Amino acid sequence: FQMPSVIVYGGRGALGRAIVLHFKSKEYRVITIDCHMNEESDLSIMVDANASWSEQKSTILAGLASNAVGEVDGVFCVAGGWAGGNAASSDMILNAALMWRQSVVTSTIASRIGVKHLKKDGLLVLTGAETARSGTSGMMGYGMAKAAVHQFTKSLAEKGSGLPDEVTVVAILPVTLDTPMNRKFMPEADKSSWTPLSHIAEKLYSWTENIDSRPSNGTLLSIKTVGGVTTEENH
Amino acid sequence: FQMPSVIVYGGRGALGRAIVLHFKSKEYRVITIDCHMNEESDLSIMVDANASWSEQKSTILAGLASNAVGEVDGVFCVAGGWAGGNAASSDMILNAALMWRQSVVTSTIASRIGVKHLKKDGLLVLTGAETARSGTSGMMGYGMAKAAVHQFTKSLAEKGSGLPDEVTVVAILPVTLDTPMNRKFMPEADKSSWTPLSHIAEKLYSWTENIDSRPSNGTLLSIKTVGGVTTEENH
């Protein structure tokens, strides 16, 4: 017998913490991966976000192995961040590199975790962005990184991806999440168009528990909130 | 009076050399950027492909400034490479990092060159890949990097991209190019489905000379060759 388990990559971010608390409330074993410890989880694997892509992967896979994490039901990569800048911005390249580390490095490592730890029928969730389904001239590095995650989701859903059989891969594509950071930096914004973190946490729980509730493998799931009502659209 | 000029990023690769020779035959001033010198061009800016993203950008922009390159008619980023690997490959992360450096780092730096050196009405060409318009389970890092270039092309074509007014941005999306390397590694393949390098070089020349011949700004141009006949499709 093994407790149902999930790994939350980015588990100390706002969305990550909401997911950790939701699964803990459902008596799951929860492992977090983050630059910071999450004491609400059962195990925190710490990673240096400035280490190289390969070093981060090795640290994380070794941490999971040495703590005998074994098989899990879900791997959720909700690490990420935001930075703006167009081609004329002097910091466009630095910001693009940061967005790459935060979204693409983490998503690819999450796929390697999936190969090694996901059960047959498990769930791998990555985080894209609705806006990156088209051009994003004011936030070029962000858009590129999220577009890469979208295409990666399609690759992971194909036969021959290397993931265990019957794993479902979904990318969630929010517009704006209702986080403390967004409330701090956009105090005047219309919050009725922001998606509550609990909505995402509940979705992930439902998909983990009930295979029939999942979007089909490879779905890019746009998540939009209008007037406080959240709806989804599959791509 | 200034000679018509173009910058070829990746100008020592097979496609880059074909472009350099074509524009030289049309009496253009040609500047190459590459890890290796291209003695057929008027000026070679050398870059260490293992340096950081920001360092590469600084080296290249400083090289163009100190050689008084000034305004150019076209910036063509044809740097790139190929590596395979799915999520189960132990070298998937290393290959993804390599693909990122070869395609995304170069494309973003090309956009910064465009901001500083392209004429009004100039042409910026990036290199995507037809296959990355959907999932690429056997070459995950390659697909992600090319998908990022595709979305970046859409961002660069938007108002507010930071590029000079009236610049046209196009990504070429080949299937397989007829290069010496591909002939070496796929000797048995059907070469009548490979696109000749001269076809691409001639297209770039025509687009540079004649604005009306260009695909519309932001086009992802699929380039397919069947039975020796090459056709294009706009996305």
From TrEMBL, chains A, B:
<dbReference type="InterPro" id="IPR036291">
    <property type="entry name" value="NAD(P)-bd_dom_sf"/>
</dbReference>
<dbReference type="GO" id="GO:0070404">
    <property type="term" value="F:NADH binding"/>
</dbReference>
<comment type="similarity">
    <text>Belongs to the short-chain dehydrogenases/reductases (SDR) family.</text>
</comment>
<comment type="function">
    <text>Catalyzes the conversion of quinonoid dihydrobiopterin into tetrahydrobiopterin.</text>
</comment>
<dbReference type="GO" id="GO:0070402">
    <property type="term" value="F:NADPH binding"/>
</dbReference>
<keyword id="KW-0783">Tetrahydrobiopterin biosynthesis</keyword>
<dbReference type="GO" id="GO:0006729">
    <property type="term" value="P:tetrahydrobiopterin biosynthetic process"/>
</dbReference>
<dbReference type="Pfam" id="PF00106">
    <property type="entry name" value="adh_short"/>
</dbReference>
<comment type="subunit">
    <text>Homodimer.</text>
</comment>
<protein>
    <recommendedName>
        <fullName>Dihydropteridine reductase</fullName>
        <ecNumber>1.5.1.34</ecNumber>
    </recommendedName>
</protein>
<dbReference type="InterPro" id="IPR002347">
    <property type="entry name" value="SDR_fam"/>
</dbReference>
<keyword id="KW-0521">NADP</keyword>
<dbReference type="InterPro" id="IPR020904">
    <property type="entry name" value="Sc_DH/Rdtase_CS"/>
</dbReference>
<dbReference type="GO" id="GO:0005737">
    <property type="term" value="C:cytoplasm"/>
</dbReference>
<dbReference type="GO" id="GO:0006559">
    <property type="term" value="P:L-phenylalanine catabolic process"/>
</dbReference>
<dbReference type="GO" id="GO:0004155">
    <property type="term" value="F:6,7-dihydropteridine reductase activity"/>
</dbReference>
<keyword id="KW-0560">Oxidoreductase</keyword>
